[in-house]
Amino acid sequence: MQTQHGHDSEGEHELRMQRVAAEPEENEEHGLITGAPNLASKALSAPRIRQAASVAGACLIYLTIGPTLIIVNRTLLVARKFNYPMTVASLGVLCSTVVSFVLVHCRCVRREHTNLITPKFFVYNLLPIGASLATTLACGNWVHLYLPVGFIQMLKATTPMVTLAMLWVSGIETPTLRVTLSVLGIVLGTCIASLGASLGGNFSVVGLGLMLLAELSEALKLVLIQKMLTNLKFGVIEGQYYMAPVSALWLCSAAMLMELPKAALPAHRPHALALIHSEPQLFIASAVLGFGVHLGTFLVIKTTNSVTLKVLGTMRNAGLVLFSATWYDETITRLEAIGYCISLLFFAAYNLYKIRGL
Prior knowledge:
The chain crosses the membrane at residues 52-72, 84-109, 121-143, 149-169, 181-214, 241-261, 282-301, 337-353. The chain has one domain. Helix content is 78%, strand content 2%. It has helices at 2-22, 36-79, 85-105, 119-142, 149-155, 159-169, 177-199, 205-228, 236-258, 260-263, 269-278, 280-303, 306-327, 334-356; strands at residues 25-27, 32-34. The longest helix is centred in the N-terminal third of the chain and has 44 residues, at 36-79.
């Protein structure tokens, strides 16, 4: 009996040792469990780190490329007196056309919607969307000839108002009372900022009209995309493959009609050619950054969501207001600052109500 009991004890001891070996070690001093679960947590943390890095990279690209493009284009238009905003605006869409064409035809990117791109689809969908995008880009550049950078960014706070009005008129969306009041608050803040700009000598009726036209065309583009391309999810490259050539067609046609005759005059041609020859890096940067803006927007939406895009856009505009006050030595009156803060406050409320459906 003793021998049998001794064998049972040894067997139980071996089983206990196997179970202990299989169990994770416990750190008695800190009460922490180490071993297999710790390895699993490390394995799980790697994808999280990669995801966080992707989000941070996308946000960084979005926050830096847009302002850099504005600075480069303003340098060309104002500092270097290359007064051809449509020509400058066309550089980005031409670069987007070339890059997307190369990537698609080198089979780096696959087209998912080839069967849908018919002549009828081109005329009734792509042409109007491309025209609205071209108008946004052209007027967005043109306004720099009349208004300072800071005030332009303040006026961009009215985008929700114009977009909401377009969505309501087209019957796509009916705003709630709280959303409507938030938009009216944005308008109030913008009016106060405009009054401050006029008192500070930074106001131009032509510039304000161009900015309003840019906002209207941007809102129209969003409405057209929402109405015509609701069920079509284009990737950034495929979207640019179809849209960029159309926008380039509109911009280049307008530039040839409105800007080329002026640039060809003996009084203007030497300066334009000399600038292209002496500082080609500005034109190249404008073209590459123009494509980068579309890429940055796509990456932010892909890695986060559209709400994050709006928040980052607001941060970017506010940063440009501060940058313009320091770098360009632009005067921002107290009334402008108060009006802009009011607009930002109601813009935050607008986003909150939209997210929660209030």
